[in-house]
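Protocol step 4 of 5: obtain the predicted structure for the target chain.
Materials: sequence only (see below). No template structures provided, no constraints applied. The aim of this step is simply to have a reference model before the mutagenesis design in step 5. Sequence pasted as it appears in the construct record:
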Amino acid sequence: MQWAERVNVVRVIGTGVMGRGIAQIAAAAGLTVELADARPEAVAEAVDHIGRMFDKLAGKGRMTTEEAAAARDRLRPVDGPLAPTEADLVVEAVREDLDTKRELFAELEEVCPTSTVFATNTSSLQVTSIATALADPSRLAGLHFFNPVPLMRLVEVIPGARTAAWVPDALVALVRRLGHTPVRATDTPGFLVNHAGRGLVTEALQVLAEDVAGTADIDRVCRDVLGLRMGPFELMDLTGLDVTHPAMESIWRGYYGDPRLRPSPITRTRLEAGLLGRKTGEGFYTYADGAEQEDPEPQAPESVAHPVWSDDAELLAELAGAGVQVERGPEPSADAVVLVTPYGHSAASAARSAGLPVARACGVDPLSTATRAVLAVHPACDVAFARAAWAAVAAVGRKVTVVRDSPGSVAQRILAAIVNTSCFIAEQHLASPADIDTAVRIALGYPRGPLEWGQHVGPRRVLTILRALHSATGDPRYRPSRWLVERAELGLELTETGTSPRDLYA
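Step 4 output (structure tokens):
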């Protein structure tokens, strides 16, 4: 029988939100759960809370009344974190402080059997650093659950530098026994999910800093064009800048100032001002009775005063179907609105390169969807023609977000950053391509895993966007990952590891 199947008793130390969630799923899976906390009253509160959760699940038909009662009976309050135990596994979920965690594990080593495996639920501290307090660091690994634990079914399994080779496999099997999905991550800043998530928020903040679009417009594009459940600014308000900004700085420092992970002074300033998000009633949005207050979108003009010419035949056909007068010749007439659809490049540069009249040209992001289009307007654009372009694109029946022209526009920039960040993770062998996609899809709620997403859009297209951004801005944050470059040039999928020297030794 494997270790994961033999596990019978788990001690959970720390009965806050995370500890309660871990205890709940462990008890539901048939394990006896010892609950411990520095505050005895917190244990009683946790037992009562978890019991109510089981009752709710029974009321919804997700477990029987008998199963709920049995799971509740498997919760065992103990006198303190260091009470004598024969636990097979101890999971620590105390406050995120290195000294606190080190001291706890050093003391646990004195009271637990040598066979007990230790796991830390740290989200930002390195497992190896925590393990330095142990005489036997081989018994400690990271087991990073996500909040709320019963609903967020992903768990990162993170071995430290000296974790015994058998422990990660054993914890992977145990996570599956708990009904959750395990992914393996290396003991690096941000582990897997928090590292991968930097692509979205850091690029969204850069777009905001350049005044390409406002927070609400960026969120709308991310939801309606990219298909994200929440826009980046809604997400930061939900998490709280007191959590998000320090995490950005920690991961950036941990990678010695890698430009692709660079935080934004916007969030530092707002953090210092106390604009944390929902928890303070004001962040990037204001909140009334917990409800987000979002300004209404501007309404598009009702009429199109000019014919429309475009370099995209499908867009022209869509406009014609909506009753818009279109031109299909090789060049636009002297009165036509010009719509260009570049990848990576700005609308103004695309128009100039094609010899088109720049003052009458606007950009339509080719990533636009049936529900929302993104229209880019550059500084030299004639206002009357820009308004006509807006009216034409809106005539199809979709919402239109008008943004300032920039290389890549909003959706392309954010998508390329998401894909490129995960390509760097794959390139550095911080996680397997399959685990990267699984972790991000489950934990961050993206419509696809980032490598799958990049493959869907096309590696060459993502590479084109990044190279154009890098060339236009000179900012090394846009340097493309070698993983992306090689696969685009060799015709491999982003989800493939490809051949390595190790394959020759097999």
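Step 4 remarks: The CA atoms of residues 5 and 174 lie 7 Å apart. The mean pLDDT is 96.
Proceed to step 5.
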